[in-house]
Amino acid sequence: MPLKPLEHDRKYGELDQVIRAYLGQAADDSPEHRSAALDAYLRHTWHSRPWAIAIAEQQVREYAENPPGRLRQRLGEFYPVPDVGLADADIQDWLLRLADHLKESVEQGDVPPPSVPLTHWEWHARFPETGQFLGGWFSQDMPDEFGDHDVALADYVEGTDATLVARLAGELGELLALPLDEGGYALAVAELGMEVDPPAPYAPSGWLTLLVDRLSGGGLPG
Q1: What is the distance of C-alpha 202 from the center of its chain?
Q2: Beta-bridge partners for 33
Q3: Which is nearest to 174 in space by CA: 48, 72, 79?
Q4: What confidence tens digit (pLDDT) does each residue in 81-138 have?
Q5: Residue 177, exposed/middle/buried by CB under 10 A (0-12, 13-18, 19+)?
């Protein structure tokens, strides 16, 4: 039978976070080089949950050194590593390299410098409520579900806990503080799930600024 959620998280919860950071990215770590995906995981996790990196190192190493046998695989009682573009025979050595890099990062305090998010995982890890908002209310179905952007915004605010609305306002303020040009903001909102254009006449940054004002008490559309 598949792993129960509590057992999964105890054994593989942080391992799963590390592996998910690689989806859509190259698993090109070497003994001397960390991949962009691992740098993204470390950059965000050092900032938000630094204690979790040691847990990740332990879980990654334990999984690499004790891969699931045939019985556990048949029963489904194991963590299936998602496809990261490596042959099955290369997965174990790659995981051990990841564990070594995680250990070195903790022991030497080797933290990637602050940066604009560089991977899809990092965008969503850093701006989770923004991803919920843009992906849930401004997907390609938005014109069929809501009359316009203002109606979608009002629906989000009406149906969302006030603390999450405040969190969204804070995340949008942080997003606007990033050193991005207009093309960078267009990429950011697309990475975070927005599939429609901002309302005329706004460019992405202008619309985000308007959202912060409205969410922070500047008045929601009637």
Answers
A1: 27
A2: 30
A3: 48
A4: 888 999 989 999 999 999 999 999 999 999 999 999 999 999 999 999 999 999 999 9
A5: exposed
**Could you give the angle at which helices 162-176 and 128-137 cross, rounded to 10 degrees?**
100
What's the mean pLDDT when you consider all of the chain?
91
Cα distance between residue 185 and residue 191, in whole Å: 10
Tokens at 79, concatenated = 């963590």
Q: Is 33 helix (H, G, I), strand (E, B) or coil?
A: strand
Q: 139, 153, 143: which is closest to 213 by C-alpha? A: 153
Q: Report DSSP state, residue 32.
A: T
User: Taking a C-beta distance cutoff of 8 angstroms, is the pair 18, 98 a contact?
Assistant: yes
Contact assessment for residue 105 and residue 111, using Cβ atoms and an 8 Å cutoff: yes
pLDDT in tens, 54-64: 999 999 999 99
Quote the CA–CA distance of 19 and 78 in Å, as a whole number: 15
Nearest to 135 by CA among 168, 87, 102: 168
The residues near 159 (Cβ < 8 Å, ≥ 6 apart) are none
Question: What single-letter DSSP state applies at residue 114?
Answer: P
